[in-house]
Amino acid sequence: MKRSPPTKRAQPQTPPRIGARLLRWYDRHGRKDLPWKRHRNPYHVWLSEIMLQQTQVATVIPYFARFIARFPSIASLARADVNAVLHQWSGLGYYARARNLHRAARILVREHAGRVPRDVEAVANLPGVGRSTAAAILALAYDQRHAILDGNVKRVLARYHAIAEPLPGRHVEQQLWELADYHTPRGRAADYTQAIMDLGATVCRRTQPLCAQCPARKNCAAFAEGSPEHYPQRRDRKTVPTRTVKMLLIRDARGHVLLQRRPPIGVWGGLWGLPECHARDVRDWSQVTLGLDIVPEPRWPRLRHSFSHFHLDIHPIPARLVGDGLRIMESGDSVWYNCRRPDERGLAAPVRRLLDQLR
User: Fold this and answer.
1) Which of 223, 254, 302, 309 gives a 20 to 30 Å CA spacing to 293?
2) Which residues of 80-90 are buried (b: 16+ CB within 10 A; e: fewer)?
3) pTM for this structure?
4) What three-state secondary structure class fits 190?
C-alpha cells in the first residue's frame, strides 16, 4: 500500500553521528578507484568537483581523462585559449563551468603561484566554486575537516533525520548545514567526505534506495517510517516549457558550414553554433540578417535537446550558399567550418551531432 507523504512535525532528539559507520562502510565498499582518487592532486580534485556538479560520475570519467591529457596542470589550463577549453568540455553541458574553470585557473596562476590554496575562503571565492564545493576540494585534496552539502549529502541527511520541510528553503538549508557539520568526524576528513557522497550516489539513491545495504539504516528516521523516498520533499515544480528553433546548416562551395560564436552568457554561452532562425521565410531571414543568399533544402527530422528548465526542439535546415559568403567572417564571430577537419572549438552537443550527420 502506498504511503502518504510525511507531514511537518517536531523533530526527535538528534540521532547518533554516522561518521564512524560510514568510514567502516567506505573501507569495504567505497569508490577508491576513481581517476581523481589515485593521487591526491589538488588540481585533479578541483577539476573533478567542478565536472561532477549536476553530472554523474560515469559521464565525467572520460571527459576528465581527456581534459587532464590536454591540460595537465593549472598553468597549462590558464595559458589555453577559452575555445580549446570549451572544445574539451563539448557535450558535458553547463558550459559556464568550463568558462569559470578557465577564469579560476588564471586567478590561481596570478595570485597563488598556480596552486590550489589551502584557505577555504580563497577557494570558495574562485569563479564557479562556492561553499560546499570549496569544502569538498579542501577535504579531498588536503584532508581538512570541512562539512559539505551537495545534493547527495542533502538527501542522506534529510532521510536520516526525516526532515519534512521542503527543499529548497533558507531555514532547511541552514539546518542541513548544521547537521552536516555535526556528522563530520574529526579524523579522516577526505575518506568521510568521499564516503557520504558515495553513499548518496550508490545506496541512498533518489529513487529505489538500497536501504538494506546502508550502514546508517539502524538510526535512520525515514527508514523507520518506511518511507525513505518521501525525503527530501521538493517544492512543486512548474511544467517544463518547450521552445522551438530552426538551425541552418549553410554550406559554401567548399562544403564548409557557417558557424557563429554565441554570446558569453546564457545557454551555450561562448560556444560556436549554427545560425538560429525563428522566422517563417528562412531565405528572406538569411538575406536580411546574415547578408547571405541561400537555397534551403528539405529539413531534417526534429532534434530535441532538454535543459534543466526547458526543452528545445531543433528543426535543422540544410542550405546551399549562392555567391561569395567570405565577407561574413570580418567580425571574427563567424567562421566557415570544415567538418572534415575539425579544430579545437567549443560546440554544443546537438550542434556537434548535426555537424557529424552532415559530414
Assistant:
1) 302
2) beeebbbbbbb
3) 0.84
4) helix
Q: What's the rounded Cα separation, in Å, for the pair 50 and 44?
A: 10
Q: In CATH, what number is assigned to the domain containing residue 138?
A: 1.10.340.30
Q: Looking at this protein, which amino acid is placed at residue 82? A: V
Structural domain boundaries, residue 180: 19-229
Mean pLDDT of 32-57: 93
List of residues 6+ apart from 39 with CB closer than 8 A: none
In this structure, the answer to whether residues 151 and 291 fall within a common structural domain is no
What cell does 339 get? Answer: 567538418
pLDDT at 92 over 50: yes
**The residue to which cell 532547511 is assigned:** 172
Do residues 189 and 28 lie in contact, with contact meaning Cβ atoms separated by under 8 Å? no
344 flagged as catalytic: no
Angle at 286 between CA 285 and CA 288, to 5 degrees: 65
Which contacts of 54-58 are long-range, i.e. CB under 8 A and separated by 24 or more positions? 54/93, 54/94, 54/308, 55/92, 55/93, 55/94, 56/201, 57/31, 57/201
Domain end among 184, 204, 229: 229
Exposure on the CB side of residue 145, measured as CA atoms within 13 A: 10
If residue 198 lies in a helix (H) or strand (E), which one and from where to where?
helix 189-202
Rounded CA separation 160/168 (Å): 18
Residue 284 and residue 325 share a domain: yes
- Residues 272/337, Cβ–Cβ less than 8 Å: yes
Joined together, the cell numbers standing for residue 86 give 570549451
| CATH number of 351's domain | 3.90.79.10
DSSP bridge partners of 188: none
d(Cα 294, Cα 3) in Å, to the nearest integer? 60
106-145 pLDDT per residue, tens: 999 999 999 999 999 999 999 999 999 999 999 999 999 9
Under 8 Å between Cβ of 329 and 336: yes
3-state secondary structure of 302: coil
Which residue do the cell numbers 582518487 mark? 37
Helices (H), 263-319: 282-285
Look up residue 220 and give its three cell numbers: 535512520
Q: Are residues 213 and 345 in the same domain?
A: no
